[in-house]
Amino acid sequence: MNTADYRRTRRKNRRGVLVALIVALSAAFSLMAMPAMADEVNVDEYDNSIIGNVKLNSEPLEGVLLTVSGGGYEVEVATDADGRWKVGVPDGDEFSVTLDESTLPDGIAVIDETGEDDTPNVKEAMIGPSGSTVMNFFIGRGERNVTSFFDQFVERIVNGVNFGLMLGLAAIGISLVYGTTGLSNFAHAEMVTFGAVMALIVSVDLGWPVWIAIPLAVLLSAGFGWTLDAGLWKPLRKKGVGIVQLMIVSIGLSLALRYTFQYFRGGGTEQLPGSDSPDIPLFGSVSLSQTNMISMVVSIVVIVIFAWWLVKTKIGKATRAVSDNPSLAAASGIDVDQVVRVVWILAAAMAGLAGVLWAYFRPGIRWDMGAQILLLVFAAVTLGGLGTAFGALVGSIIVGVLVETSSLFIPSDLKYVGALVVLIVILLFRPQGILGRKERIG
Amino acid sequence: MSSKDSPAAPVEREKTTGLHKGDIVPGVAKVDPIIIADGIRRTFGGLTAVNVDHVEIPRNAITALIGPNGAGKTTLFNLLTGFDKPDAGKWTFDGHSLAGMGAHKVARLGQVRTFQLTKALGLLTVLENMKLGAKDQIGENIFRGMIPSLWRKQEAEIEERAIVLLKKFKLDAKSSDFAASLSGGQRKLLEMARALMSQPTLVMLDEPMAGVNPALTQSLLDHILDLKDEGMTVLFVEHDMHMVRHIADWVIVMAEGQVVAEGPPDQVMKNQAVIDAYLGSHQDVDLGVVTGRIEGELNTAAIDLAEEVKELDANIAKRKETGK
Amino acid sequence: MDILQILSNTGSSLIAPATIGYALAALGLAMHFGFTGLLNMGMAAFMAIGAYGYAISILTFGFPWWGGMLVGIGGSLVFALILGIPTLRLRGDYLAIVTIAAAEVVRLLFLTTTFDKYTGSADGLSGYHASFRSFNPIPDGTYGFGPWEYNANGWWVRIFGIAVLALAAFILWAVMRSPWGRVIKGIREDEDAVRALGKNVFSYKLQSLMLGGVFGAMGGIIYALPASVNPGVYVTSLTFFVYTALLLGGAATIFGPIIGSVIFWGVQTLLSNLLPALVNIGVLPFMTTTQSQTVRFILVGVALMLLVIYRPQGILGNKKELTFVK
């Protein structure tokens, strides 16, 4: 799914809930003060009536055409300057009200809140004992004949999984580092940005093909991780600096690196080659861009290889042992320093790859792109249980899906809020995360 | 850390006897219990750390809680003091039910504890550490704290009391030093003195001798015995059998989370369940070496064990001789 | 290159409302982090709540300036409760992550278009000065000398800000020398030990969070007092900058946070004036003027790292009294 699509689907539901509220409120108002000015049709002829008020974000829409029909009776009515209309109807229970969407302003449509109705601009009106009924429509910005809620939902989930896998690559690294050294590394965000910036430099500045640029960027990231460990973290460990101090050092490093990126690349957004690849329809209205598909496959392959490494290889097992209990691992002859070095290299490589994928997903490369997802990565890691690599992956996918689907229900500029609130709530009830173990006390 | 090396010969003090009612069995009722615990259970994952059906701690006596590593002594301590929550069970202190009560409320009732790993507040001075221990301080309320005239008088009283205690614990020379600069043993002393600042009725000491320089051991023992003389009740966890035998009026033995035996120290030492419990925890040690039948290298744990076994043997032999 | 102008700007920044705002927030962090050992990474949210609470209650509800400040303070107290009750039982690094997340939630809520009517979303808020200025006792005119020449409103904001800062510093000093402060410092050292002495650790931490939060909210208000409330200010970096100022001065001191903030802003202003000037006269040929504005933020990061590694007690801190929680 490319950006244009992405924005469109977001826009459709952005204000849905709010509009519904406003429409309901204004309906209540219009009942209280009976519209004398309303464009009224056949009101004097019949005792029963259907009334309504067409508004967009509390602004009345004038001249919108509606058709009321039922039991062989059919009449057309247009809204007045206040967006109101009223139609007298003969005896009878049910009438159908159709709003002519072609009379709405451009880019405005009747929105279907339930997701089950294919024609939200047609509604059934029941006349109650009071002889009058209110009929309002949800009006909002969006495409006419919108995609069904179900399709949107599926599309969001697919996107969420993609986003989650990308987060997972970053989260596994943060979690490994935390597990083996106890450091909550805020500079991990900049390791993500580093990968993307390196890919940009190689592919755009040097003009090398993307399929060389990206692996090279990942390699450079790995080297970056090694450098950071050898040049900064290892000496600090040897010095016996406490974990809170280390964390603040990582914050300082994060600031320094982030502004260094800005220093060299400026404040704008730059694109990697292939970021505008065409959409490939999958089923229903769900489609994915080529790069997103490749991105998902790459994430999955890398994660599977990583899992194999962690579970099967000697150094992977040593890593888990160190995560479990560093002093015990050291006592049983594991070279903790070597494990930590490998962990930094791996974490940085995966973060760099995550950066490249994030650059395609956003899309675009910016100096603070890593910092934008750092909290989501922390949320994912905490959700899964600090220090457990597989927990971090599970947490990432949950966070990814949550962020993507939440904008179906809440304004899209609040979509990160949902994930962060979930993080806080999880910590309330299960501080050890979903897969973490409760620490033994005493 | 063994008190065998302690230089001064202990001054024998009268043991408190007649604490129990009826036959001595695990969970026996006491004449005047200060703590009564029922059905306390705590599990970590699948592991049951503590599973105590019934236990009572006698008032105004020194009770030792012993048992091999992993027997659940410290966990029971944490549960009784509100630092951990049991899965099930209820217990009372001085008639107050403590189940579900937070650690600070437990402490306010007069049941204070120390920790296995000493918790001296390193960046507070020794005197500040002591003053922190005092209860019901007016100035500990944020608003009243801002008006010194409200708490100055009380502060002076607390300081006076703190200095008396520091003198007694021979820490008065250090009163303006950061607690972080004290030695391990001095920190233990400070922690105990600080606990006494709250004028408790029950003092719970978690391994008071661990890491204490032998030169300080005797004074620590005397301090503990003094607590009883001053009307307090003491419950302590200890590995050192000498210390237990020397100062405890009553011993409770735990193994695998349960109370397996209790009684006056001399009787408990010869209890088969106790011997089993201790030997059971040392399965990695060749028993032949321990009992002296085989020559071999012993690690420190095994040396401790060998000492204990010898002690138990001697006790049993002594009892047999006296015909009891 | 106008050296006098550069020095004048730098001198002026020493008592700028932004500096005073930082100093107040840093005092709040000294309460949280330096004295209590709480790793609050959400100070930006306290500042945002103060500033927005002040501006919204004046603009939307027509409160007088002091009413707006009370709303800002009240908001920060409520936020401290909401934040503290669930999180103060968590371990240090968890607390850092939760507070930073909560701060981001607050920022996004102020930024969203959903509440545009009240918050101005991305445009922020401005034009709330009338009430505060109407209480200005200083007659119209320009006063001062050298770099410190301001009009009546400029002085009114600064004098008010310094008075608030002095009051906050006094309160912090008064509570920290009391037995209350002793308990707080004890909690920083080992909360279990303090709990074992019968102190309600949770309640003390919450009080500390609230008191420091109020300082932060007042900092946010003073910061926004002369100009506008801009949502771009209350990002996580703000918290990090305030930490840098705090650690510069000394985390467990009363005057450290104030001096740290003054130095922080002095150096920032000096660099932001000096570096472009140097670029313009060709001293730094490898740099553009835009890049020279970025350099000072790189230096903040580097300074933060070096401080924590080599002088964690700050300028005013006692060498023996390292203030980092274990």
From TrEMBL, chain A:
GO CC field: plasma membrane
UniProt KW Acetylation keyword: no
Source organism per UniProt: Salinibacterium amurskyense
Name of this protein: Amino acid/amide ABC transporter membrane protein 1 (HAAT family)
Keywords associated with the record: Amino-acid transport, Cell membrane, Membrane, Signal, Transmembrane, Transmembrane helix, Transport
GO biological process, one term: amino acid transport
UniProt main location, coarse: membrane
UniProt-recorded Gene Ontology molecular function terms: transmembrane transporter activity
Signal peptide: 1-38
Membrane topology: Multi-pass membrane protein
UniProtKB/TrEMBL annotation, chain B:
Stored InterPro entries: AAA+_ATPase (IPR003593), ABC_AA/LPS_Transport (IPR051120), ABC_transporter-like_ATP-bd (IPR003439), ABC_transporter-like_CS (IPR017871), BCA_ABC_TP_C (IPR032823), P-loop_NTPase (IPR027417)
Matches recorded under SUPFAM superfamilies: P-loop containing nucleoside triphosphate hydrolases
GO molecular function: ATP binding; ATP hydrolysis activity
Presence of keyword Transcription: no
Residue ranges of domain ABC transporter in the record: 35-281
An example Gene Ontology CC term for this record: plasma membrane
Recorded superkingdom: Bacteria
One Pfam family per UniProt: BCA_ABC_TP_C
This protein's UniProt keywords: ATP-binding, Nucleotide-binding, Transport
Protein name, entry field: Amino acid/amide ABC transporter ATP-binding protein 1 (HAAT family)
UniProtKB/TrEMBL annotation, chain C:
Bilayer-spanning residue ranges: 12-31, 38-59, 65-85, 94-115, 155-175, 209-226, 232-255, 262-287, 293-310
Membrane topology: Multi-pass membrane protein
GO cellular component terms, semicolon-separated: plasma membrane
Keywords, in A-Z order: Cell membrane, Membrane, Transmembrane, Transmembrane helix
GO MF, one annotated term: branched-chain amino acid transmembrane transporter activity
Record carries keyword Transmembrane helix: yes
Chief localization: membrane
Compartment(s) where it occurs, according to its Swiss-Prot or TrEMBL record: Cell membrane
A Pfam short name: BPD_transp_2
Protein's recorded name: Amino acid/amide ABC transporter membrane protein 2 (HAAT family)
Lineage: Bacteria, Bacillati, Actinomycetota, Actinomycetes, Micrococcales
